[in-house]
Design goal:
This protein is an alpha+beta fold. It contains 4 helices and 5 strands, in the order ααββββαβα.
């Protein structure tokens, strides 16, 4: 599915992605992970810094990003498998640690996207050159 060329496909992908993410808030292992991080009534320990925080100051985070940093969106099967992971796939972290982790992941994702675009451009260049050579060879044979 090439969502870059088809606005409908891009909109559909966005709709389905957002719907699945909203539904994941009712995923039982997510609640179990939060319960495991509870140290007192309304107080939770951050898995990153180890400090204690009120519920409003912690996030339930996927340890492995739902969308691969290196490969981006690969398939719906991978997306759903990562989104709906087991209790071990979640961590409870404070908003500061979550923001830091998100910034690092976004930077890595941007780097990988640039590398992937450069590779795609190089592949397209090689393909174009190959097609040119094949046309030349075909003309010579005629």
């Amino acid at each position: 599915m090439s969502d870059k060329k088809d606005p409908f496909q891009k909109e559909l992908k966005s709709f389905v992605t957002n719907t699945l993410r909203r539904a994941s808030f009712r995923w039982k292992p997510r609640d179990e992970a939060l319960k495991a991080a509870r140290i007192d009534r309304g107080v939770y320990r951050c898995a990153q810094c180890g400090c204690s925080f009120k519920r409003a100051d912690v996030q339930i985070d996927h340890i492995e990003p739902v969308v691969s940093l290196k490969d981006g969106f690969t398939s719906w099967d991978d997306f759903i498998k990562r989104l709906y992971c087991s209790v071990d796939g979640f961590q409870i972290i404070c908003t500061t640690c979550h923001d830091t982790k998100t910034i690092m992941e976004d930077a890595l994702r941007a780097t990988y996207n640039q590398e992937r675009k450069a590779e795609d451009k190089e592949e397209a260049k090689k393909l174009k050159e190959f097609e040119k050579q094949m046309r030349k060879k075909k003309k010579e044979e005629e």
